Inverse folding.
């Protein structure tokens, strides 16, 4: 499993020279202090913290271009950094190198309200973007839970979250990106047209590439009008299967669920304690409906009917914005709620995704596996997408528990792939899921990915050690 802290083979390149050249150009926008370097490596799960040699804060595309040229000349790795909320070691520097922090490229450059799109720098957070848009009656829907996640980081991990069932993921919502490629050239992957058949789809190739193929310095994303009416609901069920079935049936009937989040009884208990709620400790759906007032009421009535037939215990509706915010805040803080329910233990957030018809089977088998392995793990699902998270709690200092978790994660990924699903629906590959790609894509599929990496980044300087290994 994990490499010990800080033990990483050094890149063949000359990082000292690259730092000294770039320090002259960037001044105090290049830092080498240890605390900062550690904050710019992986901090959230059991993967080790592998810090870069320096952290840089670029301000413009031209500056990024220059940094790439210096890094290429001295064969030094570059690791783009948004907010560091990724969960699979994406921002680690296993070969050392330079972390490119986009925190100072955080501007909304243009809002094209008539076209329902906007152009942003990569470091703008989804929270800041939505604050900027609110008064225009617009919003950007992709919601990975971590409020400070940046649009650049979200695009690079192909993130999604609670609203993907209605609005899609970053894959559907990024119209184009401007990226600095490994040879220092700047590419704009598409125009702002809603669709295009003009050649290979470079936008979709860069979205989800985790900083391994190009460094994004501008993105155009789709926007949506804030719906006239939004209603949220919390709905406990007798069984987890009933909750999942209610969502599947609603989707099959074309009900426009905007969010349909499943929370198991372990997490409900933790949320009650953490957010001072008094929810029934049963498998529970957190729901949201968007539309006109009439259509939302109609959707709710139809959903209630389906849910009752699947064993819903009751419905608590929240119409007022502050009530809805409180509910979703509690849901989004699930990770921290679980952590505080098990003090001193680590929480490992992982995700898989299967076709929705296999979702309850996959969750139930996973819960049986959790029990058989003697683990404690909450299950949280973006049910409408067939995507669910498990969050095993464990003691890092206990090798038996660590081995049990490793076995569980492997079986979870294999189970999802065997059901024609994926080892990650939204968190991405990073370092943690590289070992499952052969099973999912076959060796030929992974070889094709390696050929793409080789063609885009022949020197292997862009976020090395992630997604695919290079010879
Ligand atoms: C509590 C919690 C809940 C979460 N829930 C979800 C969820 O429901 N759904 C979900 O999808 N994710 C979820 N995540 C994961 C996380 O929020 C996402 O991975 C997020 O999209 C990463 O954004 P970031 O700005 O933090 O990027 P970072 O973590 O800084 O970087 C992520 C990757 O993007 C690359 N990158 C960053 N900026 C650029 C750029 N400009 N150009 C090229 N590459 C770049 C980095 O090199 C790295 O590989 C959750 C995380 C936490 C902590």
């Amino acid at each position: 499993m994990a490499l010990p802290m800080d033990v990483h083979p050094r890149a063949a390149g000359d990082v000292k020279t690259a730092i000294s050249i770039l320090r002259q150009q960037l001044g105090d926008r290049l830092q080498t202090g240890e605390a900062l370097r550690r904050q710019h490596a992986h901090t959230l799960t059991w993967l080790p913290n592998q810090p870069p040699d320096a952290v840089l804060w670029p301000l413009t595309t031209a500056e990024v271009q220059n940094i790439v040229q210096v890094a290429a000349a001295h064969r030094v790795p570059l690791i783009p950094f948004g907010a560091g909320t990724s969960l699979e070691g994406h921002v680690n520097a296993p070969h050392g190198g330079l972390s490119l922090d986009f925190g100072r490229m955080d501007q909304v450059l243009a809002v094209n309200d008539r076209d329902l799109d906007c152009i942003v720098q990569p470091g703008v957070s989804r929270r800041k973007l939505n604050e900027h848009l609110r008064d225009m009656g617009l919003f950007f829907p992709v919601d990975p839970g971590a409020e400070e996640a940046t649009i650049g980081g979200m695009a690079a991990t192909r993130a999604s979250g609670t609203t993907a069932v209605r609005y899609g993921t970053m894959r559907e919502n990024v119209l184009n990106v401007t990226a600095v490629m490994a040879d220092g050239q700047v590419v704009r992957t598409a125009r702002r047209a809603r669709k295009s058949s003009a050649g290979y789809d470079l936008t979709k190739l860069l979205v989800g590439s985790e900083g391994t193929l190009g460094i994004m310095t501008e993105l155009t994303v789709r926007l949506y009008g804030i719906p006239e009416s939004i209603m949220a609901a919390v709905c406990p069920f007798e069984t987890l299967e009933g909750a999942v079935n209610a969502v599947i049936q609603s989707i099959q009937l074309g009900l426009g669920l905007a969010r349909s989040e499943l929370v198991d009884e372990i997490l409900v208990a933790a949320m009650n304690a953490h957010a001072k709620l008094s929810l029934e400790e049963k498998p529970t759906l957190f729901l949201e409906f968007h539309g006109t007032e009439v259509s939302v009421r109609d959707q709710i009535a139809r959903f209630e009917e389906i849910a009752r037939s699947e064993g819903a215990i009751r419905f608590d509706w929240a119409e007022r914005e502050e009530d809805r915010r409180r509910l979703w805040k509690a849901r989004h803080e699930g990770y921290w709620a679980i952590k505080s329910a098990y003090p001193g233990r680590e929480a490992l957030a992982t995700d898989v995704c299967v076709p929705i018809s296999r979702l309850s089977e996959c969750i139930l088998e996973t819960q049986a596996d959790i029990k058989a392995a003697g683990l404690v793990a909450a299950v949280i699902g973006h049910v409408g997408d067939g995507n669910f998270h498990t969050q095993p709690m464990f003691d890092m200092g206990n090798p038996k528990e660590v081995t049990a978790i490793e076995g569980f994660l492997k079986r979870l990924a294999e189970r999802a792939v065997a059901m024609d699903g994926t080892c990650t629906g939204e968190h991405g590959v990073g370092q943690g899921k590289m070992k499952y790609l052969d099973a999912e894509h076959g060796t030929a599929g992974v070889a094709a990915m390696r050929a793409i990496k080789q063609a885009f980044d022949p020197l292997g300087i862009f976020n090395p050690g992630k997604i695919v290994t290079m010879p």
